[in-house]
Amino acid sequence: MKYGNTLENIAYIKEKAKKKTDGVYTARGLVYAVKNNMVTYIYDHGVYYQTLYGFLVRLGKIDWSYGENSIKKLRDFVREVEKKQ
Question: Where are the domains of the chain?
């Protein structure tokens, strides 16, 4: 099993998201945001992605760190994006 942004891992977190409440979670080296039981954003090694119509859209890149910092960064990022919408 490889960690990070692979098709297998994306399918895995999409399946896990169906059973999760809204929030930010980690699995297989990815940090992902769930809203309405769907993956909305993914953070992988400093790169932010948004899931749109089955595609991963790269939104930006920042200095990479994993762990509690990365979860906080994705939460902050999701809040900022939702404020603008």
Answer: 7-84
